[in-house]
Design a protein that fits this description.
Distance between the termini: 25 Å
Protein name: RNA polymerase sigma-70 factor
Number of helices: 9
Number of domains: 2
Keywords: Sigma factor, Transcription, Transcription regulation
Family: Belongs to the sigma-70 factor family. ECF subfamily.
Shape: elongated
Structural class: mainly alpha
Domain HTH luxR-type: 149-176
Organism: Chitinophaga silvisoli
Length: 209
C-alpha cells in the first residue's frame, strides 16, 4: 500500500530544515497536478512544465521566507496560476486545452473487456469535450474540484473568488455537463452499457464536496 504523503510536513521539512529529499517528494507529488492545472491557462504542455518548474525552483531558493506559508498546496496552485497569467500577458494567448491521462476516477472496470475499455475511453473523450465547452472560469473550477479533488474553499482561495461563486459555477457546470452528455447516453445500444456509462458519469460529476 502506498504511503500517504503529507504535503504540510514535507513543506515544513524543506523550508525549515533545507531537506532536499522532502522537497523532491513534494515535487513529484504535486508536479503532475500543477502541470494539468497550468495547461488550463497556457497553450503548450512544455510551457506548463517550465512554469511549474520555475515555481518550484523559486520555492527552493526562497525556502527560508516560505516558512510563513500555512497552506503550501494552495500557495503553489496560486503561484502557478499567477505565472501562467503573466505568460499570457506577454504572449497574448489564452486557451483551455483538453487534459489527457485520465484514470477513470477510480471506477473499477473490467480491463479484460475490450468493449468496456473502449466505451470508457470514448466516454472520457466525450466528457473532456463537454468540459471544453464550459466558460473558462467554470471549466477551471470544475476541473480543480473533480480532477484535483479540491474543496470549494480551496478553489475560492486559488482563484480569488467567493465560496458562493464557486458553488454557483459548479451548479452551472453540472447542469451543462449533464445536458451535453445526455445525447451520448441515449446512443448506448445495450442496457448494461447504459448503466456503466451512467454510473461513471454520475460519480464523476456529482461525487465530492
Amino acid at each position: 500500500m502506498q504511503k500517504e504523503v503529507n504535503i504540510n510536513d514535507l513543506w515544513e521539512r524543506f523550508t525549515k530544515g533545507s531537506d532536499a529529499r522532502s522537497f523532491e517528494v513534494l515535487f513529484h507529488e504535486l508536479n503532475p497536478r500543477l502541470i494539468k492545472f497550468c495547461t488550463l491557462y497556457v497553450h503548450y504542455q512544455q510551457v506548463a512544465e517550465e512554469i511549474v518548474s520555475d515555481v518550484f525552483v523559486k520555492c527552493w531558493m526562497d525556502r527560508v521566507q516560505m516558512q510563513v506559508v500555512e497552506k503550501p498546496e494552495t500557495y503553489l496552485f496560486i503561484a502557478v496560476k499567477n505565472q501562467a497569467l503573466n505568460y499570457n500577458k506577454r504572449f497574448s494567448s489564452i486557451q483551455v486545452v483538453n487534459i489527457e491521462d485520465h484514470d477513470g476516477g477510480g471506477i473499477l472496470i473490467n480491463e479484460a473487456s475490450p468493449e468496456l475499455e473502449l466505451e470508457k475511453k470514448e466516454l472520457i473523450f466525450k466528457m473532456d469535450q463537454a468540459i471544453g465547452t464550459l466558460p473558462r472560469q467554470c471549466g477551471i473550477i470544475f476541473r480543480l474540484i473533480k480532477e484535483n479533488g479540491m474543496k470549494y474553499k480551496e478553489v475560492a482561495e486559488i482563484l480569488n473568488i467567493s465560496h458562493r461563486t464557486v458553488h454557483t459555477q459548479m451548479l452551472r457546470a453540472m447542469k451543462k455537463m449533464s445536458k451535453a452528455m445526455d445525447p451520448y447516453l441515449k446512443k448506448a445500444n445495450r442496457q448494461a452499457t447504459d448503466n456503466l456509462i451512467s454510473t461513471i458519469l454520475v460519480l464523476f460529476i456529482f461525487m465530492g464536496n
